């Protein structure tokens, strides 16, 4: 292998260990792969609650995701 080649084997093993199958792995764009492989930057609970409040799934109906949060706890 030359210096310019990507480590496909290591990338595939990392994807498999993260639960990404071969078909899904090969459909990923390089940008998507870099985002997945970067790790670290996860959304915190507070940000998720803010997004659920700002963008409800349906007007006037309770959703399973929204009903499982205790919004009063974070305020």
Q: What does this 3D model show about the protein?
A:
With 75 residues, the chain is an all-alpha fold. 57% of the residues lie in helices and 0% in strands. The chain folds into 2 domains: 8-38, no CATH class; 45-74, no CATH class. The protein contains 6 helices and no strands. The longest helix has 10 residues, at 8-17. The chain is elongated, with a radius of gyration of 19 Å. The model has no long low-confidence stretch (mean pLDDT 77).
Q: What is the strand content?
A: under 5%
Instruction: Give the oligomeric state of the chains in this entry, treating copies of one chain as homo and distinct chains as hetero.
Output: single chain
Coarse shape: elongated
N-to-C SSE string, H for helix and E for strand? HHHHHH
What is the arithmetic mean of pLDDT?
77
Poorly predicted spans: none
Summing up helix and strand content along with how strands pair, one would put the structural category as mainly alpha
Pfam families: Phage_TAC_6
InterPro entries: Phage_TAC_6
Sequence-ordered SSE layout with sheet pairings:
Blueprint: H1 8-17, H2 22-27, H3 30-38, H4 45-54, H5 64-67, H6 71-74
Q: What's a quick, concise take on this entry?
A:
It holds the Pfam family Phage_TAC_6. With 75 residues, the chain is mainly alpha-helical.
């Amino acid at each position: 292998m030359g210096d310019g080649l990507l480590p496909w084997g290591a990338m595939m093993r990392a994807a498999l260990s993260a639960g990404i199958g071969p078909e899904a792995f090969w459909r990923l764009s390089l940008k998507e792969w870099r985002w997945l492989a970067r790790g670290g930057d996860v959304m915190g609970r507070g940000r998720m609650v803010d997004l659920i409040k700002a963008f409800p799934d349906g007007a006037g109906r309770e959703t399973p995701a929204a009903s499982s949060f205790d919004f009063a706890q974070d305020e």
